[in-house]
Amino acid sequence: MLWLAAGQAMAQQDQVLPSSDVLVINRQRLFEESAYGRAILFTLNQRAGEIRAENQRLIQDLEAEERDLALKRSTLPQDEFQTLAEAFDEKVQKIRRDRDTQERRFDLIVEQTRVDFTNKTAPILEKILLESGASIILYQTEDSNFMALPKVDVTAIAIQRIDAEFSANGSTPQ
Predict the structure, then answer these.
(1) pLDDT (mean) for 160-166
(2) SS3 state at 122
(3) Alpha helices in the chain (DSSP H)
(4) Mean pLDDT of 100-109
């Protein structure tokens, strides 16, 4: 444990912040490459897998019910079959609405999780900003329309500090 703390201290000492008024952080890398972000992604991916598995189970159940209903078509009177078919259709529509609602909820959870990550890591990034003497940090995203020299990209430094901070605190995502 002592060697881990010493290694983290040395890594932080080795970090050289650029001398620039503007710093750049790749927001996606920060989230996907920090241990804290990866833990969050792991949890989200687990939940997404559960949702996919549940959807697959529902699809299989509905397909089996539909096959059963199709077999009954030739053996039941038309009005009785029609009643069963309408009930099945209503069931399918309700399941679709429920699944759509669940997917929207999950999308909101994903978005809120990213907001929470940003809020929890902001003090670390603020410290980097103050230590460097820079005036601003620009977040680079997939749709950014700017170019920057690699020397002002402090993403790796931010990842190291986030990892050190959250591992030292024993913080885990909710």
Answers:
(1) 94
(2) helix
(3) 2-14, 27-33, 35-73, 78-132, 155-169
(4) 96
